[in-house]
Amino acid sequence: MAQKPKVDPHVGRLGYLQALVTEFQETESQDAKEQVLANLANFAYDPNNYQYLRQLQVLDLFLDSLSEENETLVEFAIGGLCNLCPDRANKEHILQTGGVPLIINCLSSPNEETVLSAVTTLMYLSSPGAGSHPELTATPVVQCMLRFSLSANTRLRNLAHIFLEDFCSPSQVAEARSRQAHSALGIPLPRTEAPQQP
């Protein structure tokens, strides 16, 4: 378990976030990296932190972490990006720095939470004001959403239906269905963990 970063109580929010980023960059422990990234993802949920997280380049840290082999780091990184996407400046940064292909790659994760956050992030990025970014609804993405719309997981199935109905044109869905009918390939559905018994 990583120790809390040593921060002067007078430094405030920016100082604390800086200490977390420094710890993430300097630690060799995977457990510590996971804990720090989880903390940063949680801080990303608060709009009061957006400016500080941009200043500390945490968006780039999250994007870089999407390429990690450690699935837990990927889960926390995409969760952090998902939390940051409602902000226009954060959204534009992700779109302009080539983040979309990294997020799309998360759709093939075996981790259910990673996939759910990736779908939600794509929805935030596709929302009005994002400009034209055709890669967000490219045929392979739409095909993936069609597969997810058949998932036994209710959350994934519902998100996929919303994506298809609200962010894709009927012609995009028809084209994806047509191509899917001629292909045996597809992105596998994530593992669904069995509900835990109380």
UniProtKB/TrEMBL annotation:
<dbReference type="InterPro" id="IPR011989">
    <property type="entry name" value="ARM-like"/>
</dbReference>
<protein>
    <submittedName>
        <fullName>Armadillo repeat-containing protein 7</fullName>
    </submittedName>
</protein>
<dbReference type="InterPro" id="IPR042462">
    <property type="entry name" value="ARMC7"/>
</dbReference>
<dbReference type="Pfam" id="PF00514">
    <property type="entry name" value="Arm"/>
</dbReference>
<dbReference type="InterPro" id="IPR016024">
    <property type="entry name" value="ARM-type_fold"/>
</dbReference>
<dbReference type="InterPro" id="IPR000225">
    <property type="entry name" value="Armadillo"/>
</dbReference>
<feature type="region of interest" description="Disordered">
    <location>
        <begin position="179"/>
        <end position="198"/>
    </location>
</feature>
